[in-house]
């Protein structure tokens, strides 16, 4: 929930984010993932499912994101959620944090 003056906060569904995927030693994933990976992001006090895709500028959409990678991805939320550029969030899978992210640009 967000308490704000009406019309002052937007709830986008698509944004560009800079992500860091935790390594196995850091408590993250043991294996990589590809496009259309559907984890949850924990933003403020909400867990929201997100679909991760490579930006259109990336030519090879079949590549894998491996633990320890820093990558920029397009994120599409299944439910509109209030976000702002510069806001941080955690990527969660099965109740544990597997990565961190920073909203770099709101798309829709």
Automatic annotation (TrEMBL):
GO biological process terms held by the UniProt record: mitochondrial translational elongation
Keyword GTP-binding: yes
Record InterPro entries: EF-Tu_GTPase, Transl_elong_EF1A/Init_IF2_C, Transl_elong_EFTu/EF1A_C
Keyword Cell inner membrane: no
Pfam assignment, any one: GTP_EFTU_D3
Entry keywords, A to Z: Elongation factor, GTP-binding, Mitochondrion, Nucleotide-binding, Protein biosynthesis
Official protein name in the record: WGS project CCBQ000000000 data, contig 00047
Domain Translation elongation factor EFTu/EF1A C-terminal: 9-106
GO cellular component: mitochondrion
Taxonomic source organism: Kluyveromyces dobzhanskii CBS 2104
Transmembrane intervals: none
Single GO molecular function: GTP binding
């Amino acid at each position: 929930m967000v308490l704000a003056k009406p019309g002052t906060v937007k709830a986008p569904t698509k944004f560009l984010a800079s992500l860091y995927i935790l390594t196995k030693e850091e408590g993250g994933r043991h294996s990589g993932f590809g496009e259309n990976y559907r984890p949850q992001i924990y933003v403020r006090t909400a867990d929201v499912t997100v679909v991760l895709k490579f930006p259109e500028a990336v030519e090879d959409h079949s590549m894998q994101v491996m633990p320890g990678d820093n990558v920029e991805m397009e994120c599409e939320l299944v439910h509109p959620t209030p976000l702002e550029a510069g806001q941080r969030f955690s990527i969660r899978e099965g109740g544990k944090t597997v990565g961190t992210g920073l909203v770099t640009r709101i798309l829709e």
